[in-house]
């Protein structure tokens, strides 16, 4: 994952910094649950000198800073309320994590001047261990865990029943293709939650928000992204993209149901689910402005993956112009697509019986 997934860097017109409004809406939609969980469940120790926070899949832009600011404000409030006799708060250390190819230069050049924390970058895949065991007080991840670590191998093999020829996701593909993506997501998320379980300090919390779909008939963010494949097909027919190269391209994304996510978190005996909440972000795909917004958003997210696979000479402006037109062509399919589902899960650590000494 760390070698293929990174949002567009910098702060130009196609950057993630300027095209991450959907993720901003997602965090705003889950903020109230985040605050309630800190107030009701975070166990702050009087002896805490350094409070450590990790934002996993931070990317670049203002969203990660807004999230961290909210967490710190609530922890400060809880500390003041719980220990009013103390005149000094713990120091805050924030770890911004993303893949090695993330634009950390842009991220750190945009750090708020008035921040109340010391910042550090932690490049690497969050599907493995990132921090020392028992070291983190609060770990947060928003709109990140739907990225899987790799495209399932069987969807790329020509004689496999799961070969995903002519498609870039599992949305309009066979059951075998979807099952392959689901299996990869389950393997990855078990690794993710297992690593976090090891890293969480006693009394700490994990808060995860991820795009979801409640049932098979519900549309999700991947349905609109899948239409990009139709733009690619036209470019293949015109000789602008090699067919074999297109057939080997798949988006490394899986959108789970809430029940899938809950089952995976519950499978870790060291963790206990405190809260689960579904929310929705309002979206529209009905006007030229909506199509342009969606195209700009998807380009900021996917351009790096596309260039890595097809090479730097691919006609990116042409591709996403075609994508805009395809969204218009498919607009009837999206006439009821007015929201993006999100599931948020708050988790605490379970102290095992053999650890009680």
Break the fold down into its secondary structure elements and pairings:
Layout lengths: L20 H21 L8 E7 L5 H21 L8 E8 L5 H6 L8 E6 L12 E7 L32 H25 E13 L8 H6 L1 H10 L5 H5 L10 H9 L4 E12 L5 H23 L5 H14 L9 E11 L8
Helix pairs in contact: 1-2, 6-10, 9-10
Order of helices and strands: HEHEHEEHEHHHHEHHE
Give the overall shape, derived from the CA principal axes: globular
Q: What share of the residues does DSSP label as strand, in percent?
A: 15-25%
- Under CATH, the homologous superfamily of the domain at 21-220 and 251-283 and 338-351 reads Vaccinia Virus protein VP39
Fraction of residues in helix: 25-40%
**Tally of individual helices:** 10
Main pleated sheet: 7 strands, mixed
End-to-end CA span:
40 Å
Overall strand count = 7
Task: Give the C-alpha Rg.
Answer: 21 Å
Class from secondary-structure proportions: alpha/beta
Query: What is the CATH fold-level name of the domain at 21-220 and 251-283 and 338-351?
Result: Rossmann fold
InterPro entries: MeTrfase_7, MeTrfase_capping, SAM-dependent_MTases_sf
GO molecular function: metal ion binding; methyltransferase activity
Family: Belongs to the methyltransferase superfamily. Type-7 methyltransferase family.
Keywords: Magnesium, Metal-binding, Methyltransferase, Transferase
Provide keyphrases for this structure.
about 350 residues; alpha/beta; Rossmann fold; seven-stranded mixed beta sheet; 10 helices; about 20% strand; MeTrfase_capping; transferase; magnesium
């Amino acid at each position: 994952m760390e070698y293929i997934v990174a949002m567009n860097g910098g702060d130009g017109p196609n950057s993630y910094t300027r095209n991450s409004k959907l993720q901003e809406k997602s965090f705003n939609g889950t903020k109230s649950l985040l605050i309630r969980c800190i107030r009701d469940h975070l166990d702050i120790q009087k002896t805490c000198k350094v409070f450590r926070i990790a934002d996993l899949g931070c990317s670049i832009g203002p969203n990660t800073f807004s999230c961290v600011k909210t967490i710190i404000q609530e922890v400060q409030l809880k500390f003041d309320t719980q220990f009013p006799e103390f005149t000094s708060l713990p120091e805050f250390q924030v770890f911004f994590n993303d893949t090695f190819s993330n634009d950390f230069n842009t991220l750190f050049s945009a750090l708020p001047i008035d921040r109340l924390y010391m910042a550090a970058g932690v490049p690497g895949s969050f599907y493995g261990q990132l921090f020392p065991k028992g070291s983190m007080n609060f770990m947060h991840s928003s709109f990140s865990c739907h990225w899987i670590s790799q495209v399932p191998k069987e969807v790329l093999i020509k004689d496999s029943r799961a070969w995903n020829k002519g498609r870039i996701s599992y949305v309009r593909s066979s059951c075998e293709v979807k099952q392959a993506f689901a299996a990869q997501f389950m393997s990855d998320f078990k690794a993710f939650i297992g690593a976090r379980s090891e890293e969480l300090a006693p009394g700490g919390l994990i808060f995860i928000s991820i795009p979801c779909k409640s049932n098979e008939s519900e549309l999700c963010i991947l349905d609109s992204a899948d239409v990009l494949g139709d733009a690619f097909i036209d470019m293949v027919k015109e000789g602008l993209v090699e067919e074999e190269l297109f057939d080997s391209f798949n988006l490394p994304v899986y959108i789970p149901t809430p029940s899938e996510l809950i089952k995976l978190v519950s499978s870790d005996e060291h963790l206990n689910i405190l809260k689960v909440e579904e929310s929705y972000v309002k979206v529209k795909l009905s006007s030229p402005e909506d199509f342009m917004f969606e195209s700009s958003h998807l380009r900021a997210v996917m351009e790096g993956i596309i260039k890595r696979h097809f090479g730097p000479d691919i006609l990116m402006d042409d591709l996403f112009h075609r994508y805009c037109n395809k969204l218009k062509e498919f607009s009837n399919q999206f006439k009821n697509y007015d929201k993006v589902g999100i599931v948020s899960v708050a988790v605490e650590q379970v102290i095992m019986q053999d650890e009680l000494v």
